[in-house]
Inverse folding.
C-alpha cells in the first residue's frame, strides 16, 4: 500500500519536472517576443511606421536623424535570394547523389564532411569569407569584393548542410514500392530518381529550402564580415556592390547606440522576427498540406 | 564502370579546383601587379555609432553642419565595419582601400599616411601639427569631493600620464609631479566612452595599488551617456572621446586626460604617403573616386 502511494508521488513529481522543461522553451519564446515588441513597437511608433519601413535613408547621427530600414530589408532579401540560387541546386544534387547514387566508401567521406560543415561556427565562415572569398570575387568578378555576391556565396555554403541532410532523409523516406513500380514499367535508374522519387519527396525538399532561407536571413557574423555593410539607396544596389542586411545593421551599431537609435535597432530586430515568423508559418502550411496528401 | 565514371568526375572537380587556385595565385605571385591609379578607391568607414567615426567625420568636415541640421555626407557604397580590426583587414586586403583608425592601433599590416605633410607621430599630435586628433575628456559637475579630486590629481600626475603614454595615447599634461598616496577610502563612480575605458581601467589599477581602500564603479556606455551621467550627478566622473557641446560645457568641469590621434591608413602597395586633408574629405564624400584624382 505504502509503496504504491510513494510511486504515485514520484510519478507526479517527475511529471511536473518534465512539464516544466517543456514549458521553459515556450516561456523563452514568450519572453523574447515581449522584450522585442515592448522595446521595438514604441520606437516604430515614434519614428512612424511608414518612415521606418518604407524609407531608405538611415542616418542615426544626423540632425534631424532618419531611421529608414527599407535598404536593409531589400539587402536581406537580395542576400537570401543569392544564397538560395547558389545553395539549393548544389545541396539538392548532393542530397540526390547521397541518397541514390553514392557508393558506400564515398558516402563515408561525404556524409561526415556535410555534418562537419554544419558544425563550423559562423565567425569562422566570416574569416574564410573575408580572407578567401572577398579577394576571389575582387580579382575575378570586379568591384572591391565586399557585397551581395560574396555574402551570397558564403551563405550558400552555410545553408548546404540544412538542405542536404533534410532532403536526403526525405528522399530516403520515399517508399521502396514507388521505385520498384517505376523499374517495373521499364524506366532506367535516372528516370526513376528524377521523375518518381524526387517528386515524391517534394515536401521534404521544400522544408529544407525554407529552413535554409531562415538560416540565411538570420545569419549575422559571417554576413557582417563580407557584405561591406553600406546602406545603399534601392536604385544603386548591384550584385558586386556592398549591402547592409537587417542583422548586420543591428550588430554593427548596437554596441555604441543609445536612446532612439538603440530602440530603432531593436525595432530592426522586430522586423527580422516577423520575417522569421512568416517563414515558419509557411513551413507548417507546407507540412500540413503534405500530411493531407 | 559506374565507379570509374564517378572517380573521373571527382578527379575533374579536384583538378579544376587546383587550376583555379593556380590561376588566382599567378598574378600576385610572379609579377607584382602595378598600382592602377584608375581603379576606384575603396572607402572604408566605421559604423555610424562609433566615436572614432564621429570625431573623424567632424574633423574632416564629412559631417556638414548647417544652422540646426547635421548631415553625414559619407559616400554611398562606403564599407562600414564595427571594429578597428575589420577596418585594418579590409584595407590590408584591398590595394585601393583607405580607412581610419586610432593611432594606437597602427601596425605594419597597413600604412599610415601623413596628413597635410605632417606624419602621424606622437610628437606631431602633441605639438598640434598633425591635425587629426581628438581629446579624451574627464568631466565632473560642481565641486568635486576630496576623493574624486585625489583621483583626478593622480590622472594628471607623472604616473598617470605615463600610463597614457604607455598605451600609445598622448598624455595631455607634461607633468613631473609625483603623486603620493593619500590613504583615502570610498567609491568613485565613472561612466562613459568605450574608447577611453581601456585607459581608465589602467589608471584605476595604478591608483588602487597606491590606495587599496578605494573601489571603482565603472560603466562603459559611450561618450554621450557618460556626459549625461555626470550632468545628472548619478556618476562622479564622465568620460568622453568627443568635444563637449556648448550647453554641456557651461555646466561641467572639463579636463583633458589624453589626446588620441586618428591615423588615415592605406594599403602598403599604395605609393601615396601624404594626403591633403581636402582630398581626404573629397574621397570620403565621393567627390574623388579614383587615386589618379588625388594630388
Amino acid at each position: 500500500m505504502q509503496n504504491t502511494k510513494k510511486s504515485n508521488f514520484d510519478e507526479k513529481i517527475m511529471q511536473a519536472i518534465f512539464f516544466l522543461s517543456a514549458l521553459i522553451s515556450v516561456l523563452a519564446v514568450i519572453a523574447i517576443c515581449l522584450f522585442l515588441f515592448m522595446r521595438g513597437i514604441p520606437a516604430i511608433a515614434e519614428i512612424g511606421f511608414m518612415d521606418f519601413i518604407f524609407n531608405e535613408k538611415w542616418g542615426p547621427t544626423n540632425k534631424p536623424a532618419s531611421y529608414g530600414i527599407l535598404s536593409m530589408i531589400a539587402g536581406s532579401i537580395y542576400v537570401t535570394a543569392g544564397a538560395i540560387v547558389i545553395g539549393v541546386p548544389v545541396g539538392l544534387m548532393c542530397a540526390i547523389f547521397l541518397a541514390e547514387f553514392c557508393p558506400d566508401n564515398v558516402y563515408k567521406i561525404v556524409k561526415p564532411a556535410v555534418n562537419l560543415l554544419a558544425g563550423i561556427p559562423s565567425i569562422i565562415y566570416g574569416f574564410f569569407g573575408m580572407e578567401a572569398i572577398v579577394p576571389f570575387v575582387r580579382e575575378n568578378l570586379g568591384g572591391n569584393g565586399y557585397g551581395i555576391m560574396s555574402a551570397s556565396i558564403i551563405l550558400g555554403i552555410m545553408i548546404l548542410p540544412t538542405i542536404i541532410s533534410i532532403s536526403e532523409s526525405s528522399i530516403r523516406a520515399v517508399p521502396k514500392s514507388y521505385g520498384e513500380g517505376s523499374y517495373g514499367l521499364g524506366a532506367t535508374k535516372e528516370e526513376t530518381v528524377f521523375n518518381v522519387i524526387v517528386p515524391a519527396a517534394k515536401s521534404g525538399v521544400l522544408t529544407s529550402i525554407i529552413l535554409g532561407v531562415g538560416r540565411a536571413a538570420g545569419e549575422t557574423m559571417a554576413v557582417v564580415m563580407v557584405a561591406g555593410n553600406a546602406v545603399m539607396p534601392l536604385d544603386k544596389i548591384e550584385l558586386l556592390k556592398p549591402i547592409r542586411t537587417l542583422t548586420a545593421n543591428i550588430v554593427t551599431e548596437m554596441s555604441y547606440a543609445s536612446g532612439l537609435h538603440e530602440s530603432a535597432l531593436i525595432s530592426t530586430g522586430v522586423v527580422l522576427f516577423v520575417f522569421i515568423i512568416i517563414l515558419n508559418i509557411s513551413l507548417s502550411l507546407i507540412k500540413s498540406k503534405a500530411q493531407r496528401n | 564502370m559506374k565507379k570509374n565514371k564517378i572517380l573521373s568526375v571527382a578527379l575533374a572537380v579536384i583538378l579544376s579546383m587546383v587550376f583555379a587556385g593556380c590561376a588566382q595565385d599567378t598574378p600576385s605571385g610572379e609579377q607584382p601587379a602595378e598600382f592602377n591609379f584608375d581603379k576606384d578607391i575603396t572607402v572604408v568607414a566605421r559604423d555610424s555609432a562609433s566615436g572614432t567615426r564621429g570625431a573623424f567625420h567632424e574633423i574632416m568636415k564629412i559631417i556638414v553642419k548647417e544652422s540646426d541640421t547635421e548631415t553625414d555626407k559619407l559616400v554611398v557604397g562606403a564599407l562600414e565595419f564595427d571594429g578597428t580590426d575589420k577596418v585594418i583587414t579590409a584595407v590590408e586586403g584591398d590595394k585601393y582601400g583607405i580607412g581610419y583608425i586610432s593611432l594606437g592601433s597602427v601596425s605594419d599590416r597597413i600604412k599610415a599616411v601623413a596628413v597635410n605633410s605632417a606624419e602621424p607621430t606622437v610628437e606631431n599630435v602633441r605639438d598640434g601639427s598633425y591635425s587629426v586628433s581628438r581629446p579624451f575628456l574627464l568631466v565632473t559637475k560642481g565641486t568635486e569631493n576630496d576623493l574624486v579630486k585625489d583621483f583626478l590629481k593622480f590622472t594628471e600626475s607623472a604616473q598617470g600620464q605615463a600610463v597614457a603614454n604607455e598605451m600609445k595615447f598622448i598624455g595631455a599634461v607634461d607633468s613631473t609631479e609625483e603623486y603620493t598616496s593619500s590613504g583615502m577610502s570610498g567609491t568613485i563612480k565613472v561612466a562613459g566612452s568605450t574608447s577611453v575605458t581601456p585607459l581608465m581601467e589602467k589608471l584605476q589599477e595604478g591608483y588602487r595599488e597606491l590606495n587599496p581602500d578605494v573601489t571603482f564603479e565603472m560603466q562603459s556606455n559611450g561618450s554621450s551617456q557618460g556626459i549625461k551621467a555626470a550632468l545628472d550627478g548619478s556618476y562622479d566622473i564622465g568620460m568622453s572621446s568627443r568635444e563637449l557641446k556648448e550647453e554641456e560645457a557651461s555646466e561641467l568641469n572639463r579636463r583633458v586626460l589624453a589626446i588620441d590621434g586618428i591615423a588615415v591608413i592605406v594599403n602598403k602597395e599604395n605609393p601615396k604617403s601624404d594626403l591633403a586633408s581636402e582630398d581626404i574629405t573629397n574621397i570620403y564624400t565621393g567627390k574623388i573616386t579614383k587615386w589618379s584624382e588625388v594630388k
Remarks:
- Residues 2-47 of chain A form the longest helix (46 residues).
- Residues 138 and 145 of chain A are 4 Å apart (CA to CA).
- The mean pLDDT of chain A is 91.
